[in-house]
Amino acid sequence: MSNDNNSLEPHGERLPASATEPIADPGLPEHHWRPTDVDPRAERRAERQIAGMFIAAMAFAVLFVVAYFSLSVGDNWDTFLGMGASTMALGVTLGLSLLLIGIGIIHLARKLMADAEMVEMRHPAASPAEDREATVAALNAGLDEAGIGRRPLVRNTMLGAVGVLGLPAVVLLRDLAPGDELDIDKLAHTIWEPGMRLVRDVVGTPILASEIEMGDLINAAPEAMFPTEENGYEELHGAQEQVDKAKGAIIIVRMDPDDIIPAKGREKWTVDGIICYSKICTHVGCPISLYERTTHHVLCPCHQSTFDLADHAKVVFGPAARPLPQLPLAVDDEGYLVAQSDFTEPIGASYWEREKQ
Ligand code: FES
């Protein structure tokens, strides 16, 4: 055994038992060379397989771009397992592209990179200059051993696959820009309509105005999300159900009516201090309900935007750029809370075209 801490013991050496080390080092099992180490044909075959994966990764990245432009988003929701063809195609092509690059790199490491097992003895944690130089030299040696320089086919296809993968990112940036073809109407409206009851989230029971205590915050939903024979709402399915559920989510709070500072034109949107807002943060759309009853502030857990529910949910802190949309409330003949109308502005994260409403 070498006493030099930095020395590397060749694979398979057994260290004898001694007075200070009573248990003999069992060493490493016998080394078996891989087929690609001893058979040039297996090596070339592995090289072609890996290059094939990188080429397929490029093809899937290009197909992502094709799918992005050829399949319209949103109008084909029920095409496949209740999901849109566009969503499916974008996810599958990008996923396969990333997967193939990952598998290709793993195969490169397992089949073609140098297969030498070494034992490095423990050494002090400090890194003197000569160690750092040795590390750089080892990295360079590793690159040499990986054979990337000697295998232009693998190198070029791998770089090509990673490079072409940048295309989807560039294409997706386009969605951040204003666009005339966006169906704003669809984004601006929710399932809420005049007379629809507010029901408790999850259980779907209607809410009596008289049962809400001062300081309460209730997570609620539109009654249409809980269709029964009695209420007559139609059953919703697939992506449409998810969209309506997400866009219709609300929070209801009760506070002293004298604390409420209504926005102009919203003086009759509350019922005895009961006020209702969209549950979806106007920053990037997280659901919010962290409520502080003494200040009437509600906090979004994602990036700490804070809204003052007494003052038409105006933003008092954080990155959100506009108040939470308010749902106008009334009570029906039986005393249950109902909506006076849909929201009068788009809910959720802001977008360029919102001002066109
Ligand atoms: S999503 Fe609410 S603060 Fe960012």
From TrEMBL:
InterPro entries named in the record: QcrA_N, Rieske_2Fe-2S, Rieske_2Fe-2S_sf, Rieske_Fe-S_prot
PROSITE patterns, alphabetized: RIESKE
Occurrences of domain Rieske (ranges): 269-338
Any coiled-coil regions, as ranges: none
Highest taxon in the source lineage: Bacteria
Subcellular location: Cell membrane
Family: Belongs to the Rieske iron-sulfur protein family.
Function: Iron-sulfur subunit of the cytochrome bc1 complex, an essential component of the respiratory electron transport chain required for ATP synthesis. The bc1 complex catalyzes the oxidation of menaquinol and the reduction of cytochrome c in the respiratory chain. The bc1 complex operates through a Q-cycle mechanism that couples electron transfer to generation of the proton gradient that drives ATP synthesis.
Protein name in the entry: Cytochrome bc1 complex Rieske iron-sulfur subunit
